[in-house]
Amino acid sequence: MPAAAYAGKECVCQFRRGICDQTCVRDMLDTPFYIACLKLRGRKCLVVGGGEIGLEKAEGLLACDGDVTLVAPEAGPELTQLALEGSIRWEQREYVPEDLEGTFMVIACTDDTDINIGIYEDAERRAMLVNVVDVPPLCNFILPAIVRTGPLAIAISTAGASPALAKRMKAEVSELFGEEYAQLAIMLNDVRGWAKGTLPTYQDRKAFFEGIVNGEPDPIELLRAGDAEGVRGLIEAAQRVAA
C-alpha cells in the first residue's frame, strides 16, 4: 500500500475521508495502465515541491530533455544549484493554477494535501498529465522504475503495489540486459534504412532482423566477448541473403 494511503492515517486524497479507509486504492491493482514512452524534449514540465523527491523528479525529467520549471518557496541545495546553472527555472513562491498554462506535465511532491488536491484538480480540468507522488488517486499516470542503457529503456511497474519490489527487479534487469543489448540496438538501427529501401514488405524486414537477433552465432554472446566485428559480419551476411 502506498505510504500516503493506508488505513488509519489522515486522508490525503480528494475523497476527503478524514481518516483513510483505503477507498481510493481498492481497485488500484485492477487498473490497466496504458504504457507509453513520452517525448519530453522542449516540452514544459512542472515540478511542485523543492525537497528530495522534487530533486529526483526534476533530474528524471532533465534526463529526457524536458524543459523543467520548479515551483517552491524553498528548495534543497541540489535543486538550487540546478537553478543557478540554468538547467531548470525556479519560481520561488507558492503554486498558483496559472503555473499550468502551456505545461505538458506536472509532478507534485508537496507535503500539503490541499495543495496537492488543487494541483490535481487544476490539471484534470486542463486534460493534462498529472502525478502527485505516492497518492494514486491524485494521478492520471504513474512513473515506473526505469532501466536505461544507451537507447534502451525498460520500464518496470508494480502498479504502485511495491516500489521495493520494483527496485529489486530494476537491479536484476540491469544485470540481465547490459551494454551489449544497447550496442546491438545501435548496430541494427544503422541498417534500418537499408532494410526499408531494399526489402519490399514488413514481413521481409521482420524476418531479416529476427534472423540476426535470434540467429547463430548469438550476436549478444559475440558482443559480450568483445567481437563487434563478428556481429557486423552477421549483419552483412544477412543483407547478402535478403537482397
Describe the structure.
With about 240 residues, the protein is of the alpha/beta class. About 40% of the residues lie in helices and about 15% in strands. The protein contains nine helices and seven strands, in the order βαβαββαβββαααααα. The strands form two sheets. The chain has a five-stranded parallel beta sheet, with helices on both faces. Strand 1 (about 45-50), helix 1 (about 50-65) and strand 2 form a beta-alpha-beta unit. The chain is elongated, with a radius of gyration of 23 Å. The relative contact order is 0.10.
Write the layout of secondary structure elements.
Elements: E1 44-48, H1 52-63, E2 67-71, H2 77-84, E3 89-91, E4 105-108, H3 113-125, E5 129-132, E6 145-149, E7 152-156, H4 163-176, H5 179-189, H6 192-198, H7 202-213, H8 219-224, H9 228-242
Keywords:
243 residues, alpha/beta, 9 helices, five-stranded parallel β-sheet
Uncertain residue ranges: none
Q: Helix and strand string, N-terminal first?
A: EHEHEEHEEEHHHHHH
Structural class designation: alpha/beta
Helicity, in percent? 40-55%
Q: Strand percentage, roughly?
A: 5-15%
Q: What is the gyration radius calculated from CA atoms?
A: 23 Å
Q: What's the rounded overall pLDDT mean?
A: 90
- Assign an overall shape: elongated
- Termini Cα gap: 55 Å
Number of DSSP-assigned strands = 7
Q: What is the count of helical runs?
A: 9
Largest beta-sheet details: 5 strands, parallel
Strand order of the largest sheet: 3-2-1-4-5
